[in-house]
Amino acid sequence: MRTEVGGRIRLRALSAVVAALACAVSVLGGAHVGPAEAATPARVTDVRVVSPTVTGSTASLTVRWDRAGRASGYQVLWSRSRRMTDPRVASTRTRSLTVRRLRQNVTYCFQVRGVSGRTKGRRSAVVCRLTPRRVGQAGAVWMSKQVVEGTGTAATTTLTVRWPRVGGATSYELDYRLGRTVQAPGKVTRKGISGETAIVRGLRPGQVYCFQVRGRNSAGYGYRSPTHCKFTMPAGRRAAASPSATVVDVGSFNACSDACPGWSTRAPKVRDRILAMNVGVMAMQEAGSATDYLDRNLPGYTKACQVGAGRAEADHWDSQSLFVRDADYTVVPGTANGVRFAAKTHGACWVEVIDRSTGRRLVVASVHLLNGKGDAEDRERYAQTGTLLGRIDAQYQNQPGGMPSLVLAGDFNSHRSRAFDGPRVRLEARRFHDGYDVAASYDSPPWQNSASGWLAVPVSSWTWGVHIDRVFAPAGAHVRSWRIVEPMSGGRYTQLLSDHSPVRVSIQLR
Q: Are residues 218 and 288 in the same domain?
């Protein structure tokens, strides 16, 4: 009974409270009471656009700003118009945002505003910035000089490395390592370079190193160059200290005088090119008609040897020959000899000469080996090189003092990029080296191939340079310089005289 009465009293009291609240609402004009409205964020200030970078073909910019009062987040707006027409929008809860995949070398404008719930603050002032330009693709490096420094086991080779200027680059990054690749597992040396030339010291003599370069600027890096590889000068091929050492300036030229058209027009120009090369020894290949012409029209030179000379042979069997400058050399009578290989335009001739200034004897040869790119041809060139060396050895095996220093020049139809560089392998076993590998100075770009194929734009092979026209120096000789003798202007050859370019190598004998 008491419980029922108490419950009724509490119910009446609650009803009175509800009625009082209703009156209060009525007095307030029936206003609706809901959740509190969010406060408007303050305007964003001090917007900065920083950290321009490039990645591949796009750019990125980072936008930063100061904290805005009452903001729980921010919106970043950007447009290519300073009026912020059709802006793109991104949201963030932090006070920075990196905007990616922008076009390079384009001006972008930015605004930032604070956000609190659904309430947006006023936009900031417009801030604009130009995106960076991509650093260009780097061209291949090449070596302009090399020298051996130090003695004994402390000897090292120093290279002067060069590359073409890269558009957009303010500096460069040069990578190199011992071996035939650069960007592979293993130790890679990286150097920051301010210009387009680097001096690389401390390399092991007689080893292969490979190089790559890429441009960089404050925004990032460009693409790396093609790989270029270099065999470093062995310690035993440093320059001789003696000022009286014998110097042999050798040229080699596949004139293609019979297989290629227009010889009668080319002939006097070939003669003039040879005279301008200023060499003491000139080895000629594919030179049946050229030999006849030069024998009559190359003043100051003597034909010293020719394959098949004086023999009634089929046409082109006599297409290798060698000329020496009379002011430099005397031909030793009865020493001219030769060998012919199966293909009628291939073979070699050699002769012994005496240097007029030093009295030193040497043997010089003009060589033309089998052409072709297959494994069988590689092996055949290896065999032909062995045959040639065997014939020359046989000629001197009973001579007092043995064979004089031997220099071989010609079209070997092989190069380091081949799967098996047979002639080089065979000759290196006899301590010869390709003048291209060991030269102290490179007076034309090493990637510029000696076999032009009549193309006015130089055929370029970045890794090694495809040089089938070669001069091999004997053991211990110092190769002073190497170059392809082909006039150029504006990146094009201006006077091609054959499908090969002549090569000039200067050798200092010990």
A: no
Identify which of 248, 256, 267, 259 has the alpha carbon closest to the alpha carbon of residue 406: 248
Boundary (domain end) residue, out of 231, 255, 271: 231
What is the average pLDDT across 71-94?
98
DSSP secondary structure, 283-306, as one string: EEES-HHHHHHHHHH-TTEEEEEE
Q: How far is the CA of 340 from the CAs of 79, 316, 318, 350, 387, in angstroms? A: 76, 11, 9, 12, 10
**Residue 89's pLDDT band (boundaries 50, 70, 90)?**
very high
Pairing of strands 228-231, 492-493: unpaired
For residue 176, give both structure tokens: 């190199």
User: What does the pLDDT look like over 152-175, one tens digit per residue?
Assistant: 999 999 999 999 999 889 999 999
- Amino acid identity, position 308: G
Report if residue 402 sits inside a domain: yes
Note whether 150 and 290 are same-domain residues: no
Identify the top-confidence range among 71-85, 216-230, 302-316, 448-462: 71-85
CA distances from 60 to 97, 100, 219, 223 (A): 10, 4, 9, 17
- Give the number of other Cβ atoms within 10 Å of residue 142's Cβ: 21
Q: Residue 158's domain spans which residues?
A: 142-231
Q: Which two tokens stand for residue 310?
A: 């004086």
Pick the residue with more confidence: 51 or 56?
Answer: 51
Give the mean model confidence (pLDDT) for residues 388-394.
97
At 5, the pLDDT band (50, 70, 90 cuts) reads very low
Name the burial class of residue 338, with classes exposed (0-12), middle (13-18) and buried (19+) by CB atoms within 10 angstroms of its CB: buried
Domain C-terminal end among 69, 98, 130: 130
Q: What H or E segment, with its residue span, contains residue 24?
A: helix 2-27
- The pLDDT score that the predictor gives to residue 317 is 64
What pLDDT shows up at residue 352? 98
What is the rounded CA–CA span in Å between residue 413 and residue 433? 16
- Do 226 and 247 lie in one domain? The reply is no
Q: Are residues 383 and 244 in the same domain?
A: yes
The single residue listed with the structure tokens 């209060």 is 24
**Rounded to whole angstroms, what are the CA distances from 456 to 93, 334, 487?**
61, 43, 11
494 and 370 assigned to the same domain: yes
Residue 313 has pLDDT above 60, yes or no: no
Same domain, 243 and 374: yes
DSSP β-ladder status, 247-254 and 281-285: parallel
- Assess whether 477 and 407 both reside in one domain: yes
The three-state DSSP-derived secondary structure of 145-183 is EEEEECCHHHCEEEEEEECCCCCCCCEEEEEEEECCCCC
Shared domain check, 262 and 223? no
Number of domains, the chain = 3
Instruction: Concatenate the DSSP letters of all residues of 360-387 into one string.
Output: -EEEEEEEE-----SHHHHHHHHHHHHH
